[in-house]
Amino acid sequence: MEIYKAKQALRKDMAAKKSAFTATELLDRSALILRRLEESPLFQAAEQVALYHALPGEVQTAAFIERWHQQKRLFLPLVVGDDLRLLRYTGPASLQKGAFGIWEPKPDGEEAEAGEIDLIIVPGVAFDAQCHRLGRGRGFYDRLLSSLHAPKIGICFDFQLVSSVPVESFDHPMDHVVTETKAY
Predict the structure, then answer these.
(1) Where are the alpha helices (DSSP H) in 77-155?
(2) Residue 46 in 3-state DSSP?
């Protein structure tokens, strides 16, 4: 119960920190993060990349997706019950508004095969220097990550880095974390 309370308190703290920034400021910071991600050898080598369409307040990925979808095979999550399926992004027409108001692939798209993903880019509420991740609390990504064996890069704003993220046995750490100014 203590870990649950610590996670909830950290989520509340991060929401307050995010509210100090305008959407434009977060978009500008997102561009810096994604430029740093593009320079990563893992991203450069990956041919099939799983990533996400962002909620407000997350690292904004829409322009990044558009820039890269013709050079790499990109897969985006589709919420199905309590799980995420990764479906191929082939352009704006392949998307629909889905769960939580997130743009996600239409369910009839091409699904990633097990072992097909070379790299997964993961959002989070907070991260620490040990690459632990705090999500939104529903476990979608932890369930997905338990089935993938590709390197995992968490992306976040500098203010989302904390000294320690409370973790439980089912929480999956990232292999790397990238912000506007740092890469772990």
Answers:
(1) 140-145
(2) coil
Q: Is 127 exposed, middle or buried (0-12, 13-18, 19+ CB in 10 A)?
A: buried
Q: What is the CA radius of gyration of the chain?
A: 15
CB 169 within 8 A of CB 39: no
Contact 98, 78 (CB under 8 A): yes
Nearest partner of 179 among 24, 29, 19, judged by Cα: 29
49's tokens: 């990349």
Question: pLDDT, tens digit, for every residue of 93-109?
Answer: 999 998 778 898 999 98
What's the rounded Cα separation, in Å, for the pair 24 and 110?
33
- Rounded to an integer, what distance in angstroms lies between the CA atom of residue 36 and that of residue 13? 26
Contact assessment for residue 36 and residue 183, using Cβ atoms and an 8 Å cutoff: yes
pTM for the full model?
Answer: 0.93
